[in-house]
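FORM 12-B: Structure-to-Sequence Request
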């Protein structure tokens, strides 16, 4: 295999045709069925109810980090594609950046344009908290996407995935399977994202809590920084350290490209693996059969729902499936488990790593 310093995400991809990156969530305003998939490369979108009928024209601003990760890239694509569904939405996205000060300046430019709503995925919730509060104080509702601001006065609604729930879902899948095999003192390995992040700690806690209900614990865990290269290195180290493994949970399907490459290079297949987030290449691996049996979702389709929510709030509407007249203050998406049995249902929603 090539030197790890030269390895990239695409170099690790194993088979399967490339499909469109990311797809849109089911309508947050309706229970009606999804619309047909559009032209190649377009996002799958859902048909809506009465709330989807054209209304007051609104301008929605959007800011997110630079798309240097498959999940982040899908966030931006989902947001833009969803906004295009509406003739009454003017979508204004600023240049994505991983520089905190540049993102602050970009958000300030949206505030000066007096957008009607702002969908904001901050590089860092704490450091962007003040500029989000500035938008709210200016009367611009902020839809806080994924990385939460510490001050609730800095956002109108937060929407994001369930990190603890991801761990619980992975833990139940692994626990159930090992229990059915009457496993005793199984070797369970966990590959985290960035260990210092609260989201990673929540995932690990959910995983440990779920495993505990089966009488199991994590044997070893190490973080892989959400990168393909580090995923490859960490997996290689863990495989060398443990000559026999029963189950492995990898928190992130992007870094999982490197993890799978290490497993295949080592020729190991005595264990099964669960991924995290729900990438298209992970789903193709699941469908083909092999070590990777499942992945638990943390879907970038949340960006699609964030655009829908921003539009509703800007137009003074609520969510039609709820009794309440206003959009909720917080929405946590469920973490779903994708296996070979249901992978065909989820594959159109996968994002490319």
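FORM 12-B RESPONSE
SEQUENCE OUT:
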């Amino acid at each position: 295999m090539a030197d790890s310093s030269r390895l990239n995400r695409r170099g690790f991809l194993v088979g399967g045709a490339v499909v469109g990156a990311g797809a849109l969530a089911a309508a947050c305003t309706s229970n009606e069925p999804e619309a047909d998939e559009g032209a190649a490369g377009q996002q799958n979108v859902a048909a809506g109810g009465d709330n989807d009928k054209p209304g007051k024209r609104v301008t929605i601003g959007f800011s997110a980090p630079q798309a240097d990760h498959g999940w982040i890239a899908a966030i931006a694509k989902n947001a833009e594609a969803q906004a295009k569904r509406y003739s009454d939405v003017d979508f204004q996205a600023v240049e994505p950046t991983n520089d905190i000060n540049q993102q602050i300046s970009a958000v300030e430019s949206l505030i000066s344009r007096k957008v009607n709503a702002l969908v904001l995925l901050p590089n860092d919730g704490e450091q962007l908290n003040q500029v989000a509060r500035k938008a709210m104080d200016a009367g611009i509702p902020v839809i806080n996407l994924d990385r939460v601001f510490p001050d609730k006065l800095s956002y109108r609604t937060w929407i994001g995935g369930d990190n603890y729930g991801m761990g619980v879902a992975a833990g139940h899948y692994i626990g159930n399977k090992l229990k059915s095999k009457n496993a005793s003192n199984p070797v369970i390995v966990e590959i985290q994202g960035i260990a210092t992040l609260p989201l990673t700690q929540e995932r690990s806690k959910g995983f440990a809590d779920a495993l505990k209900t089966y009488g199991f614990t994590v044997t070893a865990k190490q973080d892989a920084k959400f990168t393909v290269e580090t995923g490859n290195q960490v997996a290689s180290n863990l495989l060398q350290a443990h000559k026999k493994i029963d189950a492995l949970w990898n928190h992130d399907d992007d870094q999982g490209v490197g993890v799978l490459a290490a497993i295949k290079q080592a020729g190991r297949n005595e264990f099964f693996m669960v991924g995290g987030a729900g990438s298209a290449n992970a789903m193709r691996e699941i469908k083909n059969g092999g070590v990777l049996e499942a992945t638990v979702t943390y879907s970038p389709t949340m960006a699609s729902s964030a655009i829908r929510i921003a539009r509703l709030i800007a137009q003074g509407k609520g969510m039609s499936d709820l009794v309440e007249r206003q959009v909720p203050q917080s929405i946590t998406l469920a973490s779903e488990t994708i296996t070979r049995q249901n992978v065909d249902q989820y594959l159109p929603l996968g994002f490319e790593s």
